[in-house]
Amino acid sequence: MYKRVFGVLAIMTAAFAGYGQMAFNTLEEVWQYADTHNTAIKNAAYEVKKGEREVQRSYLDLLPDVNANAAYTDNLTIQTTLIPAVIFGGPEGVYRPVQFGQKYTYNAGFTAQLDLVNVQTWYNTRVARETKELNKAGLNNTKRNTYQQIAAQYYAYLLNKEALRLAAISAAAADSVYAAVNNRFNEGAVSLPNMDVAKLNSERAQQTLITARYQLLSSLNSLRGLLGLSVSDSISITQSLGSVSNTVSQEAFQEDPSIRLAYHQTLLNYGRYQTANAGAFPTISVLYSNNTQQFDNTFRPFDAAGPQWFPATYWSLRASWTVFNGGDRWLRSQKAKLTYLQSKEDEEQARRQAAINDDNLRLDHQKTVLLLNKAESVMNLSYDNYRHISLRYEEGLASLEDRLRAFTDYISYQNQYLNSLSEMLVRSYNIKLRQRSF
Prior knowledge:
Belongs to the outer membrane factor (OMF) (TC 1.B.17) family. By secondary structure, this protein is α+β, with helices and mostly antiparallel strands. The protein is built from 8 helices and 8 strands; from the N terminus they run H-E-H-H-E-E-E-E-H-H-E-H-E-E-H-H.
């Protein structure tokens, strides 16, 4: 039975030794790799770049619009107009049909328009800048959330390695008890119920061993998914759980990325509120136009000897102002104002809640460290007690019931230790994240 337990461990060790092409020694190394390979982080980075392009576009809107045009018209039928015949020396009251124009018309030119005053365009530039800053804050918030997911799977892997180690010890102990009880049962010195309890403990220990083994593989696959790797990519974690300290740095917490996100969301909504009010201001622009035309009854558009070109050039100063549009502008402004006030409330609540969460995190970490130390001490004492009773049992000084009860207690305290260890690891990596500047 010992060979079966430690054979499983040997297979697991060989399996993970094969994952040597991509090795991580610390959680920080995994985070660094995720910065350029995690899909959520890369998509958030794309949003930042899109925001930068939108800022550039908003500034380009401040430049003049220049449009060139060219046209060729073939008058298949020239319009007929009636004019008084008296113009040509004819009698009064008589009209003569005539046709003005020529068959072919050529037109070319350009226009340039610049808005001297356009409040909405100015505010659109501000909105674009705040959108870019919001996307940056979103990238940092995405990093924080992704780091948290990675840390959960990273420490789950280490925890499952520890659970596998403890499960192997428990399985070996359970198999030893079962083998001894079975021999005594065959000798008629142990009752069937006691033998069944020993067998039950052995089977449960094997179940725990199997569960720990497959949870170890699952946590590694989950980590692959967060790092943008496929199931066939080799990955290994060389850090051991024993090297993870239950003490954390006393560095001050950095600003919560969610606060920065809420702050820029407030500024963005304020900019949109100002943009909604921009319709109340007039738009003043200057326009310059330069066109030229040519008329001919013969199709020869590129002939230098053709008819004369007639230029038409002008500039103008224009002002437009929407005086009334049925109240739509006012309603949109009020809606934007309410959205701004709502985001301001969300920002203030985010600041208050972040402070509460930070204080609770410190308290929870202190509590979990104390409970972990106690749980580890109780588990070790329980295992020593089980070994002591086992020796007494071999010497005939303790009953089988005492030995089985001591083993059951050890398994229970072992589970309590693993739960306490899990709680401590969660608080530890959350504190690391709060001390990290994004």
